[in-house]
Amino acid sequence: MALGLFVLGHGHNVGAWRSSPSPAADLLGLDYYRTLAQEAERGGLDMVFFAEILYSYELAGRHQGAMAFPTLDPMVLIPALSRLTEHIGFVGTYSTTYTDPRATALKLATIDRLNGGRTGWNIVTTGADQSAANFSRRDLPEREARYARAAEFVAEVGSLWDRWPATPQGRPVRVQAGMSPFGKAFAADVAEVMFTVARDRDTAIAFRRELRDLVRGAGRDPDGVRVMPGIAPILGGTEAEAREKEARYLELLHPAIQLAMLGDQFGMDFSGYALDAPLPMDDISQSPRVLSGMRDPDKLIDASCGVPTLGDYLRSQARVRAHHSFVGTPEQLADQLCDWHSAGACDGFNLMFPVQAEGVPAFVDQVVPILRRRGRVRSGYEAKSLRGHLGLPAATGNA
Ligand SMILES: Cc1cc2nc3c(=O)[nH]c(=O)nc-3n(C[C@H](O)[C@H](O)[C@H](O)COP(=O)(O)O)c2cc1C
Predict the structure, then answer these.
(1) Of 42, 179, 239, 283, which residue has the fewest beta carbons closer than 10 angstroms?
(2) pLDDT at position 123
(3) Residue spans of the chain under pLDDT 50
């Protein structure tokens, strides 16, 4: 099965930075990322993935929490990490809305040549409207227009790569992560890896089947696409220990920062609301981002439990946002990963540890050996390139 490590700040729990004695030094230096990448390589993972955040979380002129740290540019970080590792691939996110195709094509091809074909490009259209002002734009273009530009952008990058000497893996691996109808149509045309959000196994099976049909409909071989849902594991020697760790991670949360981040998502100030009262749906439905159609307030409501309290909602978000979470023993996690993989729910997983400094070595020491015994994860790298690790066909042309 394909495995990627999704590195985001200190981890996918928004309070993860509070587990480190030196959060700023970690995120703005090389050592922290080097340790994570080398650990992932020790575990035989296919790749390390970096997101792109083109604005910092800010409300009323104040920056809130670790998510406000400037993230290092993957295009600069990846070459540095490539020198400190030998085999593992690296996927960097670059927006097609806010970058230039020629500059992106040249930089990605350069990195892919220099690191021996270990590069992938997560092609995103950037859904956050706060980014627009950083690029001297008033508004974020509509989703349809963003994906139309993305299609042109990728075609142009492809034709530039055609005029370049091939990289050691032909060309960088194309990754896509948008799941709207436009996102899926785009993925059908261009994606070789698709990062997804999957709530449960059945939804994941249905999504993968649909995507494979779309890929076939676009004239491509569905076996040339790896669907990788996110999963956020919390491990313990026993189930009880894993639950204790989950509780400890929830303690890391700082409600003021979470409220600020929620405010940032909706363009409204939540600081005056009580945490033990239900989410203020009337006010939320009038918030700028709901009125502009960017956010769907119904997504805040749990189909079975109704409107959660503000505190409950923040706790559920803190865990891993909408991604699938797992709490249990290494054996149980290995069982679940193998079960999803065998059932056709996915081709692999994008690992999103709530606290990376703890989660990555635990996974490598405790889960990878089980997956190796079961023949699901390599013991040593046989291929040289990211395309080779993923078992993807050689890249030719734009599709
Ligand atoms: C695992 C994962 C990683 C993502 N990383 C980024 C990112 O780094 N930058 C970004 O702008 N969007 C990122 N996205 C958002 C998607 O590109 C996409 O915009 C979002 O899922 C909404 O889908 P849609 O654009 O089809 O509506 C990511 C999504 C997923 C599932």
Answers:
(1) 239
(2) 97
(3) 398-399
Q: Which ligand 1 atom is nearest residue 176's CA?
A: 17
Q: Give the chain's domains with CATH numbers.
A: 2-239+322-390 (3.20.20.30), 240-319 (no CATH)
> Is the C-beta atom of 204 inside 6 A of ligand 1?
no
Q: Whose CA is nearest to atom 13 of ligand 1?
A: 124
**pTM score, two decimals?**
0.91
Buried b (16+ CB within 10 A) or exposed e, 133-151: eeeeeeebbebeebbeebb
| Per-residue pLDDT tens over the stretch 120-151 | 999 999 877 778 888 888 778 888 999 999 99
Q: Find, among 79, 341, 382, the residue nearest to 204 by Cα.
A: 341
Q: Whose CA is nearest to atom 10 of ligand 1?
A: 126
Is 178 close to ligand 1, i.e. is its CB under 6 Å away? yes
Nearest to 40 by CA among 76, 75, 74, 91: 91
Q: What are phi and psi of 5, to 5 degrees?
A: -105, 120
Q: How much is the pLDDT for 399? A: 40
Sign of the CA dihedral 372, 373, 379, 382?
A: negative
Copy the structure tokens of residue 229: 């849902």
